[in-house]
Structures are given as structure tokens and as C-alpha cells.
């Protein structure tokens, strides 16, 4: 089992969202995730993607880190019918990780959004 944690500064993240010319939103979030409009909620979902990559990298000891080579749209944060977030893996990420169990916790307060991912 490995753990990944990521913290996002919400005001800085909101500026990235406003820069439509950069393509950040389309290169980071799936169409389903883009339906979430509140910057603090998207920041928490971005933190979840980064936390997953950190947990996955932690499981790959003695191998190169993954952060720059992952399509973050293949790591999707969706809510269950009760609003609880979970991760859904797609494409190359799903193939590379293989069968696994993930646990996800998101939180945001003030200027910070955080995510914790357990990967087993």
C-alpha cells in the first residue's frame, strides 16, 4: 500500500482556470469533471490526480518518476450517488497500474484544497 498527498493553493489555481489560452482545463480534466465549475472543487480534484500519481510513483521504487508522462485526464475523479469522490482510471494509466484498490479523501478550506490517495 502506498499513499499520495497533494495540496493546492486555490487562488493560484483559479488563475490557471481563467487562462483559457493555455488549454490547462482541457488537458487536465475530462468533460465530466469540467462540469464542476467552483475553483475550490476543481482544485481538490486536481490535487487528487497529483496525489494518485505520487502514490503510484511510490509503488514503483527504483523506477523513473511518472509525473511528467501521465495524461491527467486518464485519472478521473467522479462522485458516487451520495457525493463521495472516487477515482476512475482510463487508458494507458489503467493498463499500467492494473487491478488495484484506491481510497480518496478530498477537503478544501479557505485558500487550500487537499487530497489523500491510498493505492493498494
TrEMBL record:
One of the Pfam families matching this protein, by short name: ACPS
Domain 4'-phosphopantetheinyl transferase span(s) in chain numbering: 3-96
Keywords: Magnesium, Metal-binding, Transferase
GO MF term list: holo-[acyl-carrier-protein] synthase activity; magnesium ion binding
Protein name per Swiss-Prot or TrEMBL: Holo-[acyl-carrier protein] synthase
Record's keyword annotation contains Cell cycle: no
InterPro entries: 4-PPantetheinyl_Trfase_dom (IPR008278), 4-PPantetheinyl_Trfase_dom_sf (IPR037143), Ppantetheine-prot_Trfase_dom (IPR004568)
Presence of keyword Transmembrane: no
Domain of life of the organism encoding this protein: Bacteria
A GO BP entry: fatty acid biosynthetic process
